[in-house]
Amino acid sequence: MAAVDRAAGLADCDPPLTGVFSEQLFRGQCALVTGGGTGIGFATARLLFHLGASVMIAARREVVLAEACATLEAERTAASGQIGFTTVDIRSSEAVSALVEETVGRFGPIRLLVQNSGGQFVSDAASMSVKGFNSVVQLNLVSTFRVARAVFDACMSDGRGGAIVAMSLDVDNGMPGMAHSAAARAGINNLVKTLSIEWAASGVRVNAVAPGIIYSESAFSHYGDAAEDLLSALLPAIPAKRLGTPEEVAGVVAFLLSPAASYVTGSTVAIGGGSHLVRKPLLPMDEPCASQPYGRLPRKARL
Ligand SMILES: CCC/C=C/C(=O)SCCNC(=O)CCNC(=O)[C@H](O)C(C)(C)COP(=O)([O-])OP(=O)([O-])OC[C@H]1O[C@@H](n2cnc3c(N)ncnc32)[C@H](O)[C@@H]1OP(=O)([O-])[O-]
Ligand SMILES: NC(=O)C1=CN([C@@H]2O[C@H](COP(=O)(O)OP(=O)(O)OC[C@H]3O[C@@H](n4cnc5c(N)ncnc54)[C@H](OP(=O)(O)O)[C@@H]3O)[C@@H](O)[C@H]2O)C=CC1
Question: Which residue spans traverse the membrane (predicted)?
Fold first, then answer.
C-alpha cells in the first residue's frame, strides 16, 4: 500500500493538537461523538477529552469502543475530562433516545454534539438497488436529523444552547460511485443551514465539515484491495498532494464547537487540502463498460 504509506504520518499530531487550544477549552462540558471509536471520530473524541470535556463515544461495535476508551484513559493528563462509551445504531430512534438519556445521566446535558457516524459502499448508480440507496441515505442524512433532534429536544432547547457539527463530504460536483452518499451529504449541507436558523434563538450553532480524503485504517479497510487503486487515482488531483489525517479534521471540529466560532453557524467547512476546488478523476471501478462506466466494486470493498 505505497500510496497509503506516503499518506500516513504526514501530519505530526500526537499528542493531538492540544498545543493549539487551551487545555480548559471544554472543561466540564458534555460532548457526544457518534462513531467515536475509530478514525475521525476517535481523533475528535481524543482532542475534546484532552481539552477537558466529558466525552461519550457511541457506535455499533462495543469491543472497538471499549478499546478506544482504554486508550484514552491511558493517555489521561491533569487537564483531561471524562470518557465513556455506549453502543448505538443511529438508524434506530429508540436506540438514539436511550443513548441521549444515558449520556445525560452520566455526564449532564449534552452541549457539544459531533455527528460523525456514517459511511457508504461504492457502486455505480446503475448497479445500486433502491434498498442500498435508501440504507445510505438513512444512515447519513435521516440519522443526522434523528440524533440532532434527540439532543436538541433533551439538552439544547433549554436556552443554554450548544454546538453541533455534522459530517459531510466534498460533494459539490457530484460523486461517481457514491450517488447515495453524495445526495445524503448534500442534504446535510442544507439541513445545517435550516437548523442553524431555526435553532439560533435557542443559542444553538449548527455547522458541518466536508473532509476530502482522510486516511485511517478503519476507513480504508472498507475499500479492501481497491484502496491502492483508488488512492493512485485520487492523490494526484489533491492540490496538497497528500491525504488528510483524522487529527486534521478533529482540529476544525473543535474550532467549530468552541467559542472561537461563536459567530459561525449554518456553514460547511471543506477540509481537503484544496481538493474541493478541482475536478475529480473518476473512481476506479471493477469492470468499466459503456452502459455502466463506473461498474461496481465487490462487496468486500465497502466504503
Ligand atoms: C472519497 C471517499 C471519501 C469517503 C470516505 C468514507 O466515508 S470512509 C468511512 C467508511 N465507513 C463506513 O462506510 C462505515 C459505515 N458503512 C456501512 O455500515 C455500510 O456501508 C452501509 C451504510 C451500507 C450499511 O451497511 P449495513 O450492512 O448495515 O446495511 P444493510 O445490511 O442494511 O444493507 C442495506 C443494503 O445496502 C446495500 N449494500 C450494502 N453493502 C453493499 C455493497 N458493498 N455493495 C452493494 N450494495 C450494498 C444492499 O442493497 C443491502 O441490502 P441487501 O442486498 O443486503 O439486502
Ligand atoms: N475518511 C474519509 O476520507 C472521509 C470520511 N468521511 C466521513 O467521516 C465520518 C468518519 O469516517 P472515518 O473515520 O473516515 O471512517 P470510520 O469507518 O472509521 O468511521 C465510521 C464510524 O461510523 C460508525 N457507524 C457506522 N454506522 C453506524 C451506525 N449505524 N450507528 C452508529 N455508528 C455507526 C462506525 O462504527 P461502528 O461500525 O462500530 O458502528 C465508525 O466508528 C463518516 O461519516 C465518513 O463517511 C467524510 C469524508 C471523507
Answer: none
Ligand number with the minimum distance to the CA of 95 = 2
- Determine contact, residues 50/79, Cβ cutoff 8 Å: yes
* Residues ≥6 apart with Cβ < 8 Å to 78: none
The secondary element (H helix, E strand) that includes residue 183 is: helix 179-198
For atom 32 of ligand 2, the residue with the nearest CA is 59
> What strands, in cross-sheet order, belong to the sheet with 204-211?
82-87, 54-59, 30-34, 110-115, 162-167, 204-211, 268-271
The C-alpha angle with vertex 189 and arms to 43 and 174, in degrees rounded to 5, equals 95
299 has a pLDDT exceeding 70: no
> Which domains, from first to last, does the chain contain?
24-269 (3.40.50.720)
Write the pLDDT tens digit of every residue in 271-281: 999 999 987 66
**Which ligand is closest in space to the CA of residue 213?**
2
Q: For residue 269, which of 252, 254, 257, 247 has the smallest C-alpha distance?
A: 252
* 48-84 per-position pLDDT tens digit: 999 999 999 999 999 999 999 999 999 999 999 999 9
The C-alpha cell at 90 is 443511529
Give the bridge partners for 271, in sequence order.
Answer: 211
Burial class (CB in 10 A: 0-12, 13-18, 19+), 127: middle
- Residue 231, number of CB atoms within 10 A of its CB: 22
Burial 82-116 (b: 16+ CB within 10 A, else e): bbebbbbebeeeebbeebbeebbeebebbbbbbbb
